[in-house]
Each structure stands twice: as C-alpha cells, then as structure tokens.
Design brief:
Family: Belongs to the HPS/KGPDC family. KGPDC subfamily.
CATH architecture: Alpha-Beta Barrel
Strand order of the largest sheet: 1-2-3-4-5
Strand content: 15-25%
EC number: 4.1.1.85
Distance between the termini: 32 Å
Radius of gyration: 16 Å
CATH class: Alpha Beta
Largest sheet: 5 strands, parallel
Organism: Escherichia coli
Keywords: Carbohydrate metabolism, Decarboxylase, Lyase
Catalytic activity: 3-dehydro-L-gulonate 6-phosphate + H(+) = L-xylulose 5-phosphate + CO2
CATH topology: TIM Barrel
Number of helices: 7
Length: about 150
C-alpha cells in the first residue's frame, strides 16, 4: 500500500506520527510526508538494515525531521553495547537535522551516552516490561532525562 494511502489512514484515525521503513523508495517517503503535513502529523523513518547518511539527507531535504534508531534484541542479548559507531551515526543524523527516537534495551543508565544527540523520544519497552517495579524505572528515566536535558518535555 503506498505511503500516501497508509498515512491518510493513520492520521485520519488520530495518529500523530507514522513510521516508514528506510528501505522504502524516496517517492513513498515523500508522499507519506506530504499527507502527514496535510493532517498535522509527522513521519519517522525507521532505520533498520542498510541505509546511508545520503539517504538521511534526502529524507531531511523532503521535510522529514524524525528517525528511529534501533539496537536489535539479538545484538543486546549477545552483549553488544551502545558503541562509538552507533553514537557517531546518531550524531551525524542529528547534525543533518533529524531528531531521533532511540530504542533497543535502553536503561536509565544509558541515557548520558546520548547527551549530544537530538533525542525526540526513548522507546523503553524491555526496561519497563522486565522490571520488578516498572513505575520506579519510569521515574528513573524521567530523572535522567531531566538531569541531562533540563526537564523540558513535551
């Protein structure tokens, strides 16, 4: 289904944001973005697999301002941490002008790693779902966000 049609359905149903996978043709991203703008919403590019900073520049050029950066479940399970390569790519995306939603086994202790990144959101499913006290972990996230980014939340 084309990006424009999906965007019309998503935003027509009340969505604020909709993801489009990074492998989608630029025309699909552009049509989805145009519909998002008409409806007062935004497109997030879901970064997974093969993509380049040139792709990111193209998305930004057509008006997309958000992306989602993943660390896969298998990578986390095998002990892979957020490394310099990840942080450098996120910084480069930020420098292009994209705001990032970051996901992949994020914990409150990880947040200082992202202080130089234009973070839009943290997606923290595993940290909350696996916690003995999810409300405490959520509070820890909020405290870290306030300490690093000054408490300015939407």
């Amino acid at each position: 289904m084309p990006g424009e049609t999906l965007a019309q359905q998503a935003f027509g149903a009340g969505a604020n944001w909709m993801t489009i996978i990074c492998a989608a043709p630029l025309a699909t991203v552009e049509k989805g973005h145009t519909m998002a703008q008409r409806c007062g919403g935004e497109i997030q590019i879901e970064l997974f697999g093969n993509w380049t900073l040139d792709d990111a520049r193209d998305w930004h050029r057509i008006g997309v301002r958000q992306a989602i950066y993943h660390r896969g479940r298998d990578a986390q399970a095998s002990g892979q941490q957020w490394g310099e390569a990840d942080l450098a790519r996120m910084k480069a995306l930020s420098d292009i002008g994209l705001e990032l939603s970051i996901t992949g086994g994020i914990t409150p202790a990880d947040l200082p790693l992202f202080k130089d990144i234009r973070v839009k959101a943290f997606i923290a499913g595993r940290a909350l779902a696996g916690a003995a006290n999810p409300a405490q972990v959520a509070g820890d996230f909020h405290a870290q966000i306030d300490a690093i980014w000054g408490g300015a939340r939407a």
